[in-house]
Amino acid sequence: MKETRINPLLVPSDLPYGAPVFDRIEESDYLPAFKEAIARNRAGVEAVRDNPEEPTFANTIEALEWAGEDLDRISGIFFNLTEACTDDALDRIAEEVSPLLTQLNMSVLLDEKLFARIKAVWERRATFALDTEAAKLLEETWKTFSRHGANLPPDKKERFAKVSEELSLSTLKFGQHVLADTNAFTLHLTEEADLSGLPDYVREMASAEAAGRGLPGWLFTLHQPSYGPFLKFSDRRDLREKIWRAYNKKCIGGENDNTALLRKIVTLRTEKACLLGYGTYADYALEDRMAKRPDTVQSFLGRLMEPSLPAARRELDEIGEYAAGHGFVGELMPWDFSYWAEKFRKERYALDEELLKPYFRLDAVREAVFGLAGRLYGLRFDLRSDIPGYHPDVQVYEVSDETGRFLSLLYLDFFPRESKRGGAWMTSFRELEVRNGVERRPQVSIVTNFTKPAGSTPSLLTFGEVTTFLHEFGHALHGMLAEGRYKSLTGTNVVRDFVELPSQLMENWAYEPDFLETFARHWQTGEVIPRAYIDRIVAAKNFLAGYSQVRQLQFGLVDMAWHTSAAGPAADVVAFEQETLRPSSVLPQIPGIAFSPSFNHIFSGGYAAGYYSYKWAEVLEADAFAFFREKGIFSREAAEVFRRELLSRGGSVDADVLYRNFRGRDPEPDALLEKLGLVNR
Q1: Which end of the chain lies in a sparser environment, N or C, as judged by fewer CB atoms within 10 Å?
Q2: For 169-189, how does the pLDDT look when each residue is reduced to its tens digit (9 = 90+)?
Q3: What pLDDT score does 3 carry?
Q4: Backbone angles phi and psi of 412, in degrees to 5
Q5: Spatial contact of 29 and 7, defined as CB atoms under 8 Å apart
């Protein structure tokens, strides 16, 4: 008799530390696994709801936290793969599964009998003698149910559930369209003359991309390692314009058009907020964040924009004058800016990417980042070739502390491919939790799109990519160093405008000579990066600080504009965005161009009414790094305080309290402007 195959997603992993068994999972396993896990989750919730005993923290709140173990595990694997290693089959499964998950979620959140038990515990919370973490779990459970319609009358509950289901599917489809449109465009060049200005590493990467698709010549794509350098270095203005327009017109028209979908998402979010009694979606989203209110965010963005916009315009004038002095005629356009800014930067600071890249071999950068974590936090990273990744490019490391205690698995996935979305991010396959006395440590992943090795040349990073690695590693530390009992409160499960603090803090070490000199060696000669180059890196740190800050603030302004209107979304998506940005635009606005239809962060990710949080966290980070400077940038004492009071605590304590516990006071609001050189103390 043929042996029945066991679905590997429905049984505990037999690998070390419960690592996902990626080498045994087949695509056909996902849908039946989801359906079974959903049934198990539903049964677990019903057991909590129908418990005849009097509601207590343990038999209601804690039991509910643990009810979805199988579903959490499967979701943690599947939805990370749809971001990093997807295909049409996985996308179809996601479209089928997402409504099922939303329906489950809504059936739980809108269950009157279950909510009655939660309410009973909440109202008697003073009688349970809960510790800080348990009290926080109770508070968050109460807020989650309340903010998801548990107090609504039946007719509004039904509509709320429907809106949530439509939102889930719409945001999923938005991200799929962005990836598809990113992959749809290629710039195929076959003449050497078309490559004028491009450094060797850019040519080699494009040659490898073409060869990988069975094409002659060179192939450029809209993925950042290809698109960014082409805009920065290509002497061919016509080709720069072509690729710029393709990148900035993603999902506007065509089969992957997102404009109607964007309007639907905004409409549904507004309706969802109004059902709960809020004026706008931003009112709803911000209530549970550090900023609390839309006017606080608007004031914050305005306070940063005020000194930044004049600085950005001065910087643009300077670049324009430089370009004119070197033969450029006409108005500087968006596809010209990176090109001339790079030439100006190279001349002013005698610094360019091609000069620095040989010193930043990816393997060496990785070991240096590991070494920094060892120096600050006593961490050790051991490669585990016996634990499979989800793609041949993925490496898996065992992370432990100096006592030998296991802390986490760390998955590293560095290189671009068509199955991976653009950008860089940290995520988790599993969060930390302690259940029935058994601790399950995190499984953390860092995903990037760094340049792949080509021929005899290893993967070499730009300086910007070095800071990206440090940024995502800061998120990973937040996950790996987590302590606590409840997965919903550990690691990066914190409010959105706080989550970027650990990541942005880590970027500071990229500018520290004492750190750079430990690893930055020429990959061919072994020469340590000259101190003169480091001095130039530091000197150039705030190059275009005003322009860069305005650009980030513009993303936040557009986000808030979409989510603060109670009148519904604008009919013309492009016109609405351009009108929003007109007062802060420093380069000419191009007709028909908008980034909103491909703005994954707010329409497919978790940053809706929250993009400002990058800048909010930068203020925290600038103030926090001052503490490390006071103690020493490699100070174990400073790192231990940061780890104990902030990194390890997750969301178990309110973010503003965590920061005060770490710093001894609230952050200094002007710390960021001072760091960027935009104001003087």
Answers
A1: N
A2: 999 999 999 999 999 999 999
A3: 65
A4: -115, 125
A5: yes
Calculate ∠ Cα 460-414-199, nearest 5°: 30
HEC-encoded secondary structure of 167-216? HHHHHHHHHHHHHHHHHHCEEEECCHHHHCCCCHHHHHHHHHHHHHCCCC
Looking at the predicted structure, is the pLDDT value of residue 165 above 50? Answer: yes
pLDDT of res. 670 = 80
Output the average pLDDT for the chain. Answer: 94
Domains and CATH numbers, the chain: 8-109+111-147 (1.20.1050.40), 185-248 (no CATH), 358-544+614-675 (1.10.1370.40)
pLDDT band with cut points at 50, 70 and 90 for residue 605: confident
Contact of 460 with 521, CB cutoff 8 Å? no
Tens of pLDDT along 359-412?
A: 999 999 999 999 999 999 999 999 999 999 999 999 999 999 999 999 999 999
Contacts by residues 25-34 (CB-CB < 8 Å, ≥ 24 positions apart): 25/77, 27/87, 27/89, 27/90, 27/93, 30/74, 30/78, 30/90, 30/93, 30/97, 31/93, 31/96, 31/97, 32/7, 33/7, 33/9, 33/74, 34/71, 34/74, 34/78, 34/93, 34/97, 34/100, 34/101
Task: Examine the residue annotation and report whether 54 is marked as an active-site residue of this protein.
Answer: no
The span from the CA of 117 to the CA of 589, in Å, is 55
Please provide residue 406's backbone torsions phi and psi, each rounded to the nearest 5 degrees: -70, 130
Percent of the chain at pLDDT exceeding 70 = 99
- By DSSP bridging, strand 218-221 and strand 443-447 are unpaired
Q: Which residue in the list 62, 83, 433, 472 is annotated as catalytic?
A: 472
